[in-house]
UniProtKB/TrEMBL annotation:
Keyword annotations of the record: Receptor, Signal
Lineage: Bacteria, Pseudomonadati, Pseudomonadota, Alphaproteobacteria, Acetobacterales
Superkingdom field: Bacteria
Keyword Signal: yes
Alphabetized Pfam families for the sequence: TctC (PF03401)
Protein name (database record): Tripartite-type tricarboxylate transporter receptor subunit TctC
Family: Belongs to the UPF0065 (bug) family.
């Protein structure tokens, strides 16, 4: 029978360290999630999962690296909502942003926060909106490039207040946060995984969370709807990917290691501190991840087209 054929070609997986590409700079929100899950995945896989930051071009350079890697499971990608917006935002890419990947599983969903340098001349969202309308392009809005969550949030925000600011792009919101704390940029919309500790320390000022409900770990920050921008909502989701053609048993093994991380109590605690939570294990299947991703591409396409800001 076919089942008796020896699997000569299939080396045991993993046979060497696994590279987890983070498509943004070290010290930022994607990096934070990646380093946490990589630790538990390493223990489960019996090989180190090594985080590799490949930032730049709104997360497309890291995605390109993984799409072009050998499909053997030793190179994987942790990416976010950009996987759903990049296919619409970019007319030309050196990789296939939809068919270039296998899905391994969803990881987490993260609220965003509208934040500013701590000495900004506004104390609540309506004052901030008034300031933006008055000063417009004299204000600098930091983001992590076209395709970043901070880009998407800024696009929706500038559309909601009907005023443009000057955009300053970074390789990730980790380095952007340093400039916001230093006060050399004015505003940013960034994930709670990167902003929570700065908000608590008072090194930046928060004006709103972008979810329909308040975030328990930042309970005194109003939602954008409460602050006067009804319906201004965006949540960042993360998923784990492998290059297209990675064998199904390897994907299954990676998924099993991901599930270990999602069920780890230390990770759940750290995620909760940072305003997020691991996805429920039942939702962390490759199939549900793929369906969610494809639905999100369809959800964002008309909104991005209406906002009309594309990469070349
Ligand atoms: C990062 O890790 O730097 C972020 O996820 C950037 C972003 O998408 O805004």
């Amino acid at each position: 029978a076919a089942a008796a054929a020896p699997a000569l070609a299939q080396a045991p997986f993993p046979s060497r360290p696994v590279s987890m590409v983070i498509p943004f700079a070290a010290g930022g929100p994607t990096d934070t999630v990646g380093r946490l899950i990589a630790q538990v995945m390493s223990a489960d896989l019996g090989q180190p999962v090594v985080v590799e930051n490949v930032g730049g071009a709104g997360g497309t350079l890291g995605a390109q690296r993984v799409a072009g890697a050998r499909p053997d499971g030793h190179t994987i990608l942790l990416h976010h909502i950009g996987m759903a917006t990049i296919p619409t935002l970019y007319r030309r890419l050196a990789y296939d942003p939809i068919n270039g990947f296998e899905t391994i599983g969803l990881v987490t969903e993260v609220p965003m926060t509208l934040v500013a340098r701590r000495n900004i001349e506004a104390t609540n969202l309506s004052e901030l909106v008034a300031l933006i309308r008055r000063r417009g392009e004299a204000l600098n809005y930091a983001n992590a490039g076209i395709g970043a969550a901070s880009h998407l949030c800024g696009l929706l925000f500038m559309q909601a207040v009907n005023t443009r600011m000057t955009t300053v792009s970074y390789r990730g919101t980790g380095p952007a946060m340093n400039d916001l704390v230093a006060g050399t940029v004015d505003l940013m919309c960034d994930q709670t995984t990167n902003t929570t500790e700065h908000i608590r320390a008072g090194t930046i000022r928060a004006f709103a969370v972008t979810t329909s409900e308040r975030v328990p770990s930042l309970a005194d920050i109003p939602t954008a709807t409460e602050g006067g921008l009804p319906g201004f909502e965006v949540s960042v989701w993360h998923g784990l990917y492998a290059p297209r053609g990675t064998p199904a048993p390897v994907i299954a093994r990676l998924n099993q290691a991901l599930l270990k991380a999602l069920q780890d109590s230390g990770i759940a605690q750290r995620f909760a501190d940072l305003g997020t939570a691991p996805v429920a294990p039942a939702r962390a299947t490759p199939q549900i991840h793929r369906e969610f991703w494809q639905a999100d591409i369809a959800k964002w396409r008309p909104l991005i087209q209406a906002a009309g800001q594309f990469a070349d």
